[in-house]
Amino acid sequence: MRHLLSTQDISRDEAVRILDTAAQMAATQGREIKKLPTLRGRTVVNLFYEDSTRTRISFETAAKRLSADVINFSAKGSSVSKGESLKDTALTLQAMGADAVVCRHQASGAPHLLANAGWLDAAVVNAGDGMHQHPTQALLDAFTMRRHLATHLAGGAARPDDDVADGTDLAGLRVAIVGDVLHSRVARSNVHLLATLGAHVTLVAPPTLLPVGVQTWPCDVSFDLDATLRDVAPDAIMMLRVQRERMSGSGSGGGAFFPNPLEYTRKYGLDPRRLATLAPHAIVMHPGPMNRGLEISAEAADSPRSVIVEQVGNGVAVRMAVLYLLLSGDNSEGTTL
Ligand code: CP
Hints:
Mean pLDDT is 92; it is low at 158-162. 48% of the residues are buried. The protein is an alpha/beta fold. It has 12 helices and 9 strands. It folds into 2 domains: 7-133 and 313-327, Rossmann fold (3-Layer(aba) Sandwich), CATH 3.40.50; 135-311, Aspartate/ornithine carbamoyltransferase (Rossmann fold, 3-Layer(aba) Sandwich). The chain is globular, with a radius of gyration of 20 Å. α1 (12-29) crosses α12 and α5 crosses α7 (185-196). The N and C termini lie close together (6 Å). The protein binds phosphoric acid mono(formamide)ester (CP). Phosphoric acid mono(formamide)ester (CP) binds at residues 52-55, 128, 134, 137, 287-289.
């Protein structure tokens, strides 16, 4: 494993290996001394051209828990604002001796360019590029589903939720991903990873918030949330943020109009009535940040079946696993994920 750029490049075995490694990392986090010496002497650069709370902090935490040195680079306040190019920024990081570059960028494909242009020797991890991909978010979502739905995945056999056998995938799991699919790199990443792991995904969105070509994705598509909840009975429902900043009417000149909030919530919001129709074992997910009262009600976000805060915590274990697999020398296949 050389880089982590897209879930479309990850095989089932590679995904399971990352999830199994993350489970081992999570087990170390319950200990009094959480820090592992694994990446001592290595340097991880968080290169963030777009805002982030969860992803940036959890990559920093993950790298520090593996004893790596961490450099946080935010485009705001850097020489990027003076017009410095991605190439010259990359060459600067190369001169600093970066071993891994974790890149978030508003332009789809920027991490691929960093990985393939020959400017860097470092491993590149895509931390979210435009509307394209956010692979570690999908991995932490899969990790969370695997942990919470282990009993269900085992066919109902009694099994503690946290006792997930190594090597298991998500075969047969039903997942509904609901909302602004058009602008969502989380949806794109999840659809491909979940399909690879054997889950069945239904995307639910208004026609105006679905991308051209969605029919070719490995999932079903519905415009009707209530029908999906009734007919599919998902084991996990993942609500997507309505990305106002990428829509016209928000000053960005984006590709879709901001929907009427009341109508959107009525048709696509996870409100208490819809929450009550979920199967007893079903979990509620959201990648964050949430628009409470728009795509998800406070009752749903804070309900006992919500795993939204746990998703954030699981992000640390998954990112520890990714950095470990990229940097520890355990790169026998040398593949680009
Ligand atoms: N889920 C996610 O990517 O959140 P941040 O934008 O806060 O990193």
